[in-house]
Amino acid sequence: MAWGKKKGGGRKEPLFGLPAALADLRLTVADRIPNAEDKPKKSAKSSTKRKSENSGDEPPRERKAQASRSGAKRRSKSRGSFSLGRLVYWGAVLGLWGAIAVVGIVVWVGAHLPPIQSLEIPKRPPTIQIVGIDGSMLAQRGEMAGANVSLKDLPPYLPKAFIAIEDRRFYSHFGIDPVGILRALVTNVLHRGVSQGGSTLTQQLAKNLFLTQERTMARKLQEAELAIWLERKHSKNEILELYLNRVYFGSGAYGVEAAAQRYFGKSAKNVTVAEAAMLAGLVKSPSRLAPNRNPEGAEARAQIVLTAMADAKFITDAQAKASIGHPSYNVKPVGAGTVNYVADWIGEVLDDLVGQIDQSITVETTIDPKLQSVAEAAIIDELAAKSVKFNVSQGALVAMTPDGGVRAMVGGRNYAESQYNRAVTARRQPGSSFKPFVYLTALEAGLTPDTIRQDAPIEVKGWRPENYTHEYFGAVTLTQALAMSLNTVAIRLGLEVGPKNVVRTAHRLGISSKLEPNASIALGTSEVSVVELVGAYAPFANGGFAVAPHVVRRIKTLDGKLLYMRQADEHNQVIDPRYVGMMNTMMRETLISGTAKKAEIPGWPAAGKTGTSQDYRDAWFIGYTANLVTGVWLGNDDNSPTKKATGGGLPVEVWSRFMRTAHEGVPVANLPSSPGGWGLSNLAQAASQVSPPTPSASAPATTSGYRPPPTRTNVRPEPAAGLDGWLMDRLFGGNR
């Protein structure tokens, strides 16, 4: 192959043997794909231009910075447009999901509420108002709710006090106050705690009517839904009136009327500006700020309310200043003290009288408030003065009319410390105060108050009961034996007439407790309650008729509908009038020359019997006139012995103090006497017969030669199985 030159001096490419026709098909530089290595070289013109620019006045660095800023501006504008778009997009997405979440929460909360269409304003919980025989309030059970008061009947500053301190925007919100919630949120954040609430009056009402007091988010959401429902269903004034009549004010008081009665002793219609402020201030913390518990705190809160009222222009600044420090609250709660034992007893019998209580009622009782106060003071003062000396910690008193109407009842010295009712619930050995049933049984068997029996040591199957003084007086009349409370004579009479007959007599007269028909029953070894023992003495005061101790006279609804009225007892003669007169003569002597000589009611014929159980564990006195039958018990709840407290000591002192006051101004009346026979006309004769005899050193007598009258069947019980004579003596030998 030969190399040659192109015409014109140019280079001729070799054809490598290709035909001349194909020579023009080869690739030129323009036909190639450019790459890094094929970049065009800088032209002389461009180079010259840059040189020319570099030779100008503007520095190269400034030109570069300007170019950089221009590029950054273009990139920033592009990114800003992109970020705003993304923000709008994600905001819309989040808003949509938030709306879905809110709807879901509302649906969930609504699903856990009762159906709105079935919601009704609930009735007030029933209350039980207990009033005395004079119509005065004694106590209240259930929630203390006063009568509903209309908004128009209240002084205008009373509802405004609640609006000022609890919900200033009450008349402008729809049940929920977003402004108030935001304000409370900001305040709480600034104070780093919960110092202000955002609940409206409507929300508070919804909570009080339909919800619990638990502090949960679910409950708050339910509260909000119900508040909106209330606002749609009721007017603002209706909501405010409902609120004022249902809100809790502490000390068991619901509604402004109950609170005004509780704290000020007046109707809510008559409260002053200062009292209205104090009531409004209680809503925040009723238990802590109740004026009967925290008068200083209640007054300080009332001042805050007064300031808020002035700030809202509900009252003038002068009115606010004049009202500060002038609430006349009464801190003594209604129905406090031992009358609550009566209220508890009433609560136990109401179901039997009227069935289930589904509405508020008033219970009219037989209690005399004045006598109740006297009885309470007599028990409390006696124990305060002598409880340490005699080791006596508790006491009980029941006073009733001869027809069984309870006029006073004290179940213990301090109801706040112990609600156990020792007058009704407790059962204790009555000791010798049970002996009248033994003597009545003997009279009904044919004996008389003048019948002679031997006071001498006695043995029953190894048991040797003794007299309280360990002395024996030989032959004594039954009147003497009962007045002096001689144990051996009571045992002989009990065995003579039969313990089962003694038990029947006691049950016939009104004892309901189980009584053991054994030899020791004559000394009162079976336990009884104070109220039933007093009720069993009532036939001696009323001429021999059985009574049922009772305290409820009538039960009415608050609007006056009669639900129950006690019917008079049937005249069931349980003691022949002859024996009533004999027993009154014998027990009258107990107060004249016997174990109850300290018992005295000037000008009034009275009778009764003392009782002291073994080891001085119980001290009793049951005494009566034609006007009242009253029983007193003193002892210890744990049945521990006292320091020789006897029935003729502390119980007689309590009884005398009470009975003297109870009979002031009451016309004197005689005790029932036997028709043409034993009675008060025989007292002088009886007194001449019962002068204390000289103690006798007669030889021990046994029951082997003792025979009852042929007109009665003698039932001789065996001593309790497994108890030897010593144990029987320890258990029963010292009763008086």
Structural summary, described in words:
With 736 residues, the protein is an alpha+beta fold. It folds into two domains: 169 residues, Biosynthetic peptidoglycan transglycosylase-like (Penicillin binding protein transpeptidase fold, Orthogonal Bundle); 356 residues, Beta-lactamase (3-Layer(aba) Sandwich), CATH 3.40.710.10. The protein is 41% helix and 10% strand. It is built from 23 helices and 16 strands. The strands form five sheets. It has a five-stranded mixed sheet with strand order 2-1-5-11-12, covered by helices on one side. The longest helix is centred in the first third of the chain and has 52 residues. The chain is elongated.
Entry keywords:
16 strands, Penicillin binding protein transpeptidase fold, 5-stranded mixed β-sheet, disordered C terminus, 736 residues, 5-stranded antiparallel β-sheet, alpha+beta, disordered N terminus, Beta-lactamase
How are the elements arranged and paired?
Layout: H1 44-54, H2 60-111, E1 128-131, E2 137-141, E3 144-145, H3 157-166, H4 178-190, H5 201-210, H6 217-233, H7 236-246, E4 253-254, H8 256-264, H9 273-282, H10 286-289, H11 295-311, H12 317-323, H13 339-354, E5 361-365, H14 369-390, E6 394-400, E7 406-410, H15 435-444, E8 452-455, E9 458-459, E10 474-477, H16 478-483, H17 487-497, H18 499-509, H19 530-542, E11 552-557, E12 562-565, H20 577-592, E13 607-612, E14 618-624, E15 629-635, H21 650-662, H22 683-689, E16 701-702, H23 725-732
Helix pairs in contact: 3-9, 3-11, 5-6, 5-7, 9-11, 11-12, 14-21, 15-17, 15-18, 15-20, 17-18, 18-19
